[in-house]
Structure formats: structure tokens, C-alpha cells
């Protein structure tokens, strides 16, 4: 096959578990521009950030899929192991000083292929090399003296180095020099380093690893040429996608690394002004109808210099959603079995549009899904685990109130199913921690309902009329009343699932009780 001319790397995409730390490193420390923020095109509930030069020019782009508090992966064969950014040759000393002052892990400088290289680690452990190479920037951004100009190279780990190298040459690369177990391939603008890692472990996806590297194509016709050529080659299956800002094709090379071929256009300025790139959140066209829900679900962050909440290391993974006009109230959200800390944010943002939302993630796992406590059967629960998690959650609430400056008099706890059950257990085991609660599909899970002073506590219970677990709700309601709680209870024309009636009742109850102050 005759190689189709290409002009180097378009972008490289990696995964992070901490969006704020990621932004602080790539924008605050490295000085890249944030040129686009979107919901993912494969999963709109996953934030996707694009960094690059002033315009997000092909060849300058580093992107991150955000798996907030997601499990770390393992770098190994079949992955991009390192990314390299070209910086002015004279700036390496300045970058060493900068890394030391910012506490960024660093080794070097060393010489690789005749260039000075400073190895850094980002907050997820990704190796980012700063390479002294006076390459031109397509759309300069940041300090002329030290700012990264463009991507210099990526390093692929493979146990099939010859096959991997031959495959990459199809995208316009030619053999360059070799150093040790690394074969360098060159385009007109950058390099791909093929590292022979025979005998090394295979890569495992997760945060701190790369998803893919993309090579440039002039237009859709060139991408289609690649698709035709790869089908004749009988390569791995190819997938063709319209990503709005570029059109692309995915394929795996023989060593396992995922490769994308992406068009240079139309670029990131098609829906934002060029001097305001990265300011707005966009969602894929197919998800436009739930744009507001996605805005509530996707993790928020602050750019350097913008106001931000302090980071607090608390016993439970948690996430805030701050509305445009917060009123000082906070709703703490506890998901149901199999949910996560963001699940309830969209509906609750609709019923309490000015409340700050604090979604919390349960710590128990059952067959790969999240819960708040272990169970032995559908209606038999691990009492010791409930007590242990309740004690930890009480500490979490205390830490959140003091650490984030929350008003304890304006806290409402809203839980669904397993989360509601846990809230009810908390009220019995640690009275006073939760003084206002919305319990959606709750049932008692404590085998012995304790005596607890719940005077001054308000609770809304919404039970599905067709909920198979609903028959236990009256016992929970009676216990709450006996302990002195003020309970509003309704049966909803629904099963165990939530319905619009739940949201309507919850909204009315919140509006009625929002003026009250918890003691």
C-alpha cells in the first residue's frame, strides 16, 4: 500500500481522576490553554477537556477524559506511555526551577535523540516530557520564553515493535534514529517513539493512562482513504465518528495501542469565539435535550485565579454542584444501589435550583455496584457495617460543615432507596446529625430500631404504591414519629422507581420548609 501523506500528531487523549488537579497542572503549571470543555461523545456523562495553543491547533492538543475519583489504570504494552511537549531550548533551566517551586516530581535533564529532556509527572502520574526543541507554534500562547509550543512526541510501548513501527508509518512517518530499545519515527513536525517492551505487562485502562493518540488528516476524504486501506489490510475493526470539531477513524495497531486519525477541521472555533475558547460547556448534539442535567452532573472546576472551594480530605468521595445563584442552602445527596455521587444532581437541581448540591458516594461494594452498607439478602443487612459506615458518615458531615463552611441550619439530606435507608439509620444511630431529610423509597434496615431524640427533626417520606419494599415503610414512619420527628408521608403512584410526582412533592416540601432553621 502507498502511504497516505499525513503531517504528524493531531492530539493525544488521556484519563484523569481529579479534574481540579488536572486543570491546575496543565493550565496553571504548564500554561496550556483550555480550548474546549464538552460532555464525552462516547459518554456524555463524562467530562472531556481539551488543552492546546491559543486556537487548539492540531499538533498542540492534549485532551483528558475525566473519571472523577476513578480507579487508576496500569501503564503497559499497547498504550501511549509518555507524552512530550516542545519548549524553547533555553527554557529547560527555567522549567527545572518552576517544577521545584511547584513541587512537581521531576527527573533530568537528560539527553534523548540529541535533545534536552526534563521528565515530569502530572497529578495522575502521567509522564510529561518537556523537550528543548525550538519548533514553531501554530498559534502561540503564553510566555514566549517558556511556553510549550506543540507536541514533540509520544512513546508507544509494544511487544511487537517491528509490526507497530510498520503500522505507524502508514500515517506519514518514516524511520529515524534508534537509541537503545527505542526506534524513533519522524514526520515533518514531530516524532513517535516505539519502545520495545517485550516481556513487560500489558496496559490496563484507567486513570493515569492514555486512551489513544490521534494523527492528522487534511479532510474527511483522507480519513476515508485510510478506512479503505485499513479494510484491505484486514486490520482491527475501524470506527468512523463525527466529533463535531473533527471527523475521525479509530483503529488498533498490532501491539494494541488505539490510534485515531482526525481531520484538521473544522476546529474548536465553530461554536465559540476564538478569543473565548474553553469558557462554555458543550454537549454532543444528540444529548442537547439534557444539557442542563449534564451541566449538573459533570464535575465542576475553577481555572487558576478563579474562586474555588477548598479541597478537604474526607472519609467519603464527594462532589459539589454550585448553581449560578446559590442561596446558602445545601442538599446532601445519597444515591441508591448502583448509583454514584452525581446520579441525583439533575433532578434535585430542578426542584432546588438555588441550592448547592453535595453528592456523596457510598463505600460498600456488591458485585461491582456501589452501596452504603453490605447486605446478606434482599431484606437482611449487615448491622455492624451499618454502624461502622454511619459513624464514618457522621464524621464526614462534621468535616464538610467545618471544612467547606456549610450552614448546618440549612442542610437537607436527600436519599433514594439504599441511600434513603442509610439516612434513616443515621437518624437513629446519630440523632442530631441529620435534622431535615427527604426519604425516597425508604425502609427500616436496623434490626432493632433505637430510642433516639428526634424532636425538631423534619422528614418527608415518599413511598411507591407498587413498590415491593413499600410494605415496610409504615413501620419506619411510625418509628420516626415515636421518636419525635415531624413526618410528612405520601404514597406515590409508582413502583420503586422515581417519578415526576416525587419531584413535585419534594419541591413543595422544600419550599414549605426552607424558611425553617435546624437546631
TrEMBL record:
InterPro entries in UniProt: AB_hydrolase_fold, Extradiol_RC_dioxygenase, Glyas_Bleomycin-R_OHBP_Dase, Glyas_Fos-R_dOase_dom, VOC_core
Domain of life the protein comes from: Bacteria
VOC domain residues: 8-133, 150-264
Keyword Ribosomal protein assigned: no
Transmembrane segments: none
GO MF annotation: an example: dioxygenase activity
The keyword Iron-sulfur belongs to this UniProt entry's keyword annotation: no
UniProt keyword annotations, A-Z: Dioxygenase, Oxidoreductase
Gene3D superfamilies recorded: 2,3-Dihydroxybiphenyl 1,2-Dioxygenase, domain 1 (3.10.180.10), alpha/beta hydrolase (3.40.50.1820)
Protein name from the UniProt record: Ring-cleaving dioxygenase
Amino acid at each position: 500500500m502507498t502511504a497516505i501523506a499525513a503531517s504528524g500528531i493531531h492530539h493525544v487523549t488521556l484519563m484523569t481522576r481529579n479534574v481540579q488537579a488536572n486543570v491546575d497542572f496543565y493550565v496553571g503549571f504548564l500554561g496550556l490553554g483550555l480550548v474546549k470543555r464538552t460532555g464525552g461523545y462516547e459518554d456524555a456523562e463524562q467530562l472531556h477537556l481539551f488543552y492546546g495553543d491559543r486556537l487548539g491547533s492540531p499538533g498542540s492538543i492534549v485532551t483528558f477524559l475525566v473519571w472523577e475519583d476513578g480507579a487508576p489504570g496500569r501503564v503497559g504494552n499497547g498504550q501511549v506511555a509518555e507524552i512530550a511537549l516542545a519548549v524553547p531550548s533555553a527554557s529547560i533551566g527555567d522549567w527545572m526551577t518552576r517544577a521545584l517551586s511547584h513541587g512537581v516530581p521531576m527527573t533530568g535533564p537528560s539527553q534523548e535523540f540529541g535533545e534536552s529532556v526534563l521528565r515530569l509527572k502530572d497529578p495522575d502520574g502521567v509522564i510529561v516530557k518537556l523537550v528543548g526543541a525550538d519548533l514553531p507554534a501554530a498559534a502561540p500562547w503564553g510566555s514566549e520564553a517558556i511556553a510549550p509550543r506543540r507536541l514533540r512526541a509520544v512513546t508507544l510501548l509494544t511487544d511487537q515493535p517491528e509490526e507497530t513501527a510498520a503500522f505507524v508509518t502508514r500515517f506519514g512517518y518514516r524511520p529515524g534514529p534508534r537509541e537503545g530499545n527505542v526506534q524513533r519515527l519522524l514526520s515533518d513536525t514531530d516524532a513517535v517513539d516505539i519502545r520495545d517492551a517485550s516481556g513487560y505487562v500489558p496496559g490496563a485502562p484507567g486513570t493515569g493512562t492514555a486512551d489513544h493518540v490521534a494523527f492528522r488528516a487534511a479532510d474527511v476524504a483522507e480519513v476515508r482513504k485510510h478506512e479503505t486501506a485499513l479494510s484491505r489490510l484486514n486490520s482491527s475493526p475501524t470506527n468512523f465518528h463525527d466529533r463535531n470539531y473533527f471527523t475521525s477513524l479509530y483503529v488498533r495497531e498490532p501491539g494494541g495501542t488505539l490510534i485515531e486519525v482526525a481531520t484538521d477541521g473544522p476546529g474548536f472555533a465553530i461554536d465559540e469565539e476564538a478569543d473565548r475558547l474553553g469558557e462554555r460547556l458543550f454537549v454532543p448534539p444528540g444529548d442537547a435535550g439534557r444539557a442542563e442535567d449534564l451541566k449538573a452532573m459533570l464535575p465542576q472546576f475553577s481555572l487558576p485565579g478563579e474562586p474555588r472551594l477548598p479541597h478537604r480530605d474526607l472519609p467519603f468521595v464527594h462532589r459539589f454542584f454550585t448553581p449560578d445563584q446559590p442561596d446558602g442552602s445545601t442538599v446532601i445527596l445519597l444515591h441508591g444501589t448502583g448509583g454514584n455521587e452525581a446520579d441525583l444532581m439533575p433532578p434535585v437541581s430542578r426542584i432546588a435550583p438555588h441550592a448547592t448540591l453535595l453528592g456523596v458516594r457510598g463505600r460498600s461494594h456488591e458485585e461491582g455496584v456501589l452501596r452504603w452498607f453490605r447486605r446478606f439478602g434482599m431484606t437482611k443487612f449487615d448491622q455492624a457495617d451499618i454502624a461502622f459506615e454511619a459513624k464514618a458518615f457522621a464524621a464526614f458531615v462534621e468535616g464538610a460543615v467545618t471544612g467547606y463552611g456549610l450552614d448546618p441550619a440549612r442542610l437537607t439530606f436527600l436519599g433514594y432507596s439504599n441511600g434513603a435507608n442509610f439516612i434513616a439509620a443515621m437518624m437513629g444511630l446519630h440523632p442530631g446529625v441529620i435534622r431535615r431529610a427527604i426519604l425516597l423509597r425508604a425502609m427500616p434496615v436496623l434490626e432493632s430500631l433505637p430510642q433516639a431524640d428526634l424532636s425538631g427533626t423534619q422528614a418527608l417520606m415518599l413511598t411507591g404504591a407498587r413498590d415491593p419494599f413499600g410494605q415496610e415503610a409504615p413501620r419506619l414512619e411510625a418509628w420516626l414519629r415515636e421518636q419525635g420527628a415531624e413526618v410528612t408521608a405520601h404514597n406515590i403512584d409508582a413502583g420503586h422507581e422515581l417519578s415526576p410526582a416525587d419531584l413535585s412533592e419534594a419541591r413543595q416540601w422544600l419550599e414549605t420548609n426552607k424558611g425553617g432553621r435546624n437546631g
